[in-house]
Structure formats: structure tokens, C-alpha cells
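## Example pair
The file below holds two records. Each record gives the amino-acid sequence first, followed by its C-alpha cell line.
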Amino acid sequence: MNGILVVDKPGGMTSHDVVDACRRRLGVRRIGHAGTLDPAATGVLVLGIGRGARLLRFLEARDKEYRAEVAFGATTTTEDAEGAIVDERDAGGLTSERVAAALGSFTGDLDQIPPMLSAIKVGGERLYKKARRGEVVERAPRRVRIESLALEGFRPGRRAVATVLVRCSKGTYIRSLARDLGESLGVGGHLASLRRLAVGGLGVGDAVPLESVGPAAVRPMEDAVRGYPRREVGEEEAVALSRGRALPAAGIEGPYAVLGPKGLVAMAEDREGSARSLCVVGE
């Protein structure tokens, strides 16, 4: 079984829990996922089945879309609703206009300090392991890109809540965005809830509930690389590329999908005047 699976992850499960459940349901051992979601978060989690797992890095490189609820007036130890409150301020003076105006300063390229509860390694150890021991260490800022931020809803009050639609690059931490947005408005804030709406070209409309996962839910591997340029080749060229031989350059910038008569053959890239495979998934 080779392909991809788009699951609407429920809250309360880790991404690895979802992978394990799908292994049992499909009877397949080789399954990976593209882009971890925190246990409390819901939404699009893309899994690679069999050879489809080789394509996950191309999905992870694509933009992601989220719907986030930001609660103002309280900062927490984890920068989300799971942590203990460490500071409280009155957010009653906030208006939707002020929040919408503040969002403008968080679009484009920016340096973001990752949260302590993240998988980034500092000193050879992942930050979340340090955080579980109560340690807080200095983290280097990471350059991310936020393509768009839109205010979808606003509920005023001492603990005002904004619903924000986010489109962002790989590596963006939405809980850090919530933290920084609250600080910019002078009242503090944390991530109250998060739902991932899309990874690359795959959205919630493509997703199935975990309880509906079965062989019929597995999608073709080419769905994993939606949005990438495509190149079609004949049987002879498909076999050659799958066996590590180069093809004539396609004149396409960046990675592209190569499709043969039997479907997706590989992801390839033009280098030094020829096309060479980056990852082979078929013949």
C-alpha cells in the first residue's frame, strides 16, 4: 500500500498517536506524518503510507493555514491554554480595530523566538525535555514568513478573544505568534485553540475522521505534491529516472513532479543541464 492519507486529527491525541492508530487500521507499518500538531490542536495531518512517506518532506516545505483563537489578558507557562497563568492584565480596552491593526506588523518575514515546548534542540537536547524539568533557556530567533493574517472574529472583555486566520511558512509557531501579538497590544496573550486548515494543496475538505480511516481513504501519491510543477514522461524515461539515470533538463525552476504512464515516478530537479531525481516513488 503506497499513497497518502489526510486525517482530521482530533484533539487530545499526539500526532504519533494518530500514526499508531492508522498503522493498526491499515495493517501497514511504514507510515510517517508531515508536520506535528500539538495534542490539543485539531485539523489536517497528512500521513505518508509506504513509498508515500518519501514525499512528506516536500509537503512539509509548503505553506500551512490555521484558524487560531488568541486569548488576551493572560500569559501562560506554555504560551497556550494548557499552561499555568503567570501574568494577568485587563484586556477590556481592546477593540477589533486595534487587533486588526496590530496584525499588520506580523506579516512578511520576521524573526520569531520559538517556545520552550518545541522539538528544537539546544545543547543537544530538545527544548520540550528541558521545559518538562522546569528549565527556561535562551533560544535563538528563527526567520519565518507569515504570508497573511486576517481577523475573522473578536469577542471583547477582560479576557478578550480574537479568531485569526493564518497562512505561514514551515517552522512558524502559532503559539509564539499569539504570545507576541498579546505583548504588542500591551495586555499579554496565549493560544486558546488551534485548527490546521491546510498543508500545501491539501485541506480539511480532503481529510477524513480518524474513525473512518481504511484502505479506501488512501489517496494517490501525486496528491502529496499538488501545486508543484509537473513534467510528463514516457515509459522509457520513467524507468531510467527511477533507476537513478538523468534525463534532459526540463527548464523548470525548483523541484517538480515527474509523472509516467503509471503515475508519479519521482520528484526531480534540474542540475547542471540535466534532470536528476530527488526522491523516487515508482517506475
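Second record, same layout:
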Amino acid sequence: MIRAVLNTTHNTDENIVYLVENAEKFNNIVSEKKISFKSLSNKLKDKEDAHFVNDLSNQIFYGVLNEDLEKCRRLGSKAQKSFSGENLNISIKFDGNEEKVLAFLEGFLMSTYDFRKYFSEEKKSKIGQLTLISDLDAKKLEETQNTVEAALWTREMVNEPVSYLNAPKLAKEIEALFSNTSAKVEVFEKAKIESLKMGGLLAVNKGSIDPPTFTIIEYKPASPINSKPIVLVGKGVVYDTGGLSLKPTPNSMDLMKSDMGGAAMMCGTTAAVVKNNLPLHIITLIPATDNRPGGNAYAPGDVIKMYNGKTVEVLNTDAEGRMILADALSYGDKFEPMLVIDAATLTGAAIRAIGTYASCIMGNADEKYFDLLEESGKETFERTVKLPFWEEYGEEMKSKIADLKNIGGPYAGMISAGKFLEHFTTSPYIHIDIAGPSFTQSPKNYESYGGTGYGVRLLYNFLKKVANGKA
């Protein structure tokens, strides 16, 4: 990722972004920039937020910062896309609120990402150097860039095909992400998973030729504010055919490299926490496998004994994410967490209910956590919708031959899935279904095609609030 550096001066002949909170402030700038203030004012009338000039010797972007931080991010994206060329030196000079400028930078940096790994021709970088001409707080700048970098790592993992990113390779990528940090990473391989009797993870893996992994990341700073850890759990299904309950291909199986979006989100969030030194004890659990119909694949009608001893009747092998999450949630109980949060691309029902603009959140944790999470969603524009979590939804998950079945009825499947998972943790619990916003085929603003990196900025913002004593 391109990272901005702070400086106090710039070369007037280089490419530059001018940012102000009021278009009138351009009056002191434009005289030296080959455009009249009157002309610029006309360009910015009717609430237009930007104007771009390319006079061959340099490129200039004039932007008006909005009160809405999301509009500042989108302005940043617009600026990044306006510049053309390779290895450009671009400076950003602003007269405005620091928070708005950081939001602009967030959008600008998010827009630099493009998944080009598998093209035959290497893409040249548009930006050689990015400089902020200001006395901006260096720590806040570093925090913003670390968080964006974590979100872009999440995009990269979601975009990788299973031909590269099987479960063992995902574990290695996680180890690499946290190398040279204070976090500890431990990877359980198949023999260890078998010894722990993680029946859900092993059952889903039975159709695969690649072994499963179970990765544990622990970050415990010197003086964490939480005496009990926060446990994060991410669904790591690196590819999902549906198993014997085979998916149709168009707009379904062909996109299922993205089914480990929850794992990528939780690892990215943890990386942001670690790099920004939040004073929180965090333990992140990533169960990983692909779900295939080969070999001795688990089948509808099977009864699986889970890590916590409960039995599950399998009625649909395509409801596999909850099977591997269940074992991870139960394993998390050993840490006696203050709060457990899982994230998963879990159900089509979540997309049908609210579309791709937000995640579905639910659970039994204290309402104060849901309030903070929704507040963080509004601030980062990674929005959430809280759904009911009534006992009646759990009735649908009762089996006639086992403790539970792995699918419910035809309605509110995202909630009945959450109620299924609730059986596997005794700790305060939040479930986040990110099936809608984690992947896009129609990118806009600072998104790119494929993985969106959804949830990293949301959850980091939430955890920062917790670290600051707001919950």
C-alpha cells in the first residue's frame, strides 16, 4: 500500500490536491495555479465538491470537504481516480478539520487497491510518493494508514482463489501478517484438531484433499484494560461448493472463494489493533477448510458430535459455516471471555433481508455493545442492522434425532443460524453476518471489484471505543 508522509513544504510544479472546507478559501490559492477564482467558483457551484485541472506540467485537484465524513472519503476516492500517469509525486495540502482530512485520505488510499496479481502484465503504480503538507498529528496519520492497510490485506485474501489460498496457506498468510509484531500465532494442524475432537470442522473437511487448520492469534499488551479477553472468531471456508448439497454455479459457486471473508475480516481487525497498540487483550480464532463433495464427504442425514459434546443432525451440507464456527466458539469458552464476536459470510437470507449495504448483527450480549457497534457502523459507513434474537427462532433448530439440526425453516434463516451458534458459547455473544457487504461485483467509490474489506474499519472503531472505556 502507498503510505503518505508528512512534510511542511511542496514544489509548486508538482501534482497537488488542495482541500478546503469552504470554496471561498480557494481565493488565496488559485492566483498561482493558472485558473481564476471566478472560474473555479463557477466550477464548484451547485454543491459540486471538486474540480480537476490537467495543464500538462502538473495535475491539480481542488476539493471542498463536506461535514459528512463518508462524503470526504468519496472525495478522496474521486481525487485518486482523477490523476493519470505512473509514479506521480502527489502532495495534499489542506485548510480544514483534521478528522475530515483523515477521512479523505482513507478514501484516497482505499482507492489505490486493485487486484492485479494474475494479469500477465504487471501494473505500474500510479503514485510514486504521497505527501501531506501539514502539521497533522503523526500518530493519527499512522493509525489511519495502519487500519486501511489491514482492510486492504483483507481484500487481498478474499480475492485469492483456492488454487492458491487453501486452509494451510491461509494459516501461513496469517503467520506472515503478524510476523515481527507482539502478537503470537499458533496453528493447529489436522492431528491436533482430531485430538481435540472438533467434529464440525472435521466433518466439513471430509470431502477435501487439503487438511483443515485452526489458527489462534493472541495479542496481550502489557496493561490491557480488560481482565478477560475479547474473543474474535472468523469463518474460514476458503472455498464452498456446497458439498454434497451442491450449489448452482452462476452467481453462486463461482464466487465462493469469498466464503472466508469473516476470517479475513477478523485477522485484518486484529492486525489493526496490534499495529495501533490498542490496550486490549484479544484472542482471534480461525477455523479453516474448503467444503467439497469428494472423497468421504459428510452427507445430509449424518449426525456429528461437536467439540462441546452436542450432536448436530446435518440436513444440508451447504450450511457448513456454522459447523466450523460452532467448534471455534466452544473452544473460545476456555478463555472465559468478556465478549465473543464472530463474523461470517453465513447466509443468503441476510442478503435477501437487507441487501448488500450492511451486515446483520444479533446476539445476547449487553445492549451497550450493540449501540456502540451501530455507532461505529455509522462513523465508518460500514453499517449494521440489528435483528431480533428471540427464543422462538431457536425452536426451528431442534432436531428429532439429535440435539440440533444445522438448518431451520424457510424464513429468517440469518437469525435461526445465529441461534444455532448461540448453543456453542456460554459467553456474551455477538454474531455478524457479512454475506451482503463483503464482496462486490459492482464497485463504487473507494471499493474495488471483489473483496471490499468490509468490517475491519467497523470493528476496529468499535474496539477502540471499548478501549476508551465507552462500554
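Notes on the second record: Residues 219 and 471 are 20 Å apart (CA to CA). The chain has 14 helices and 20 strands.
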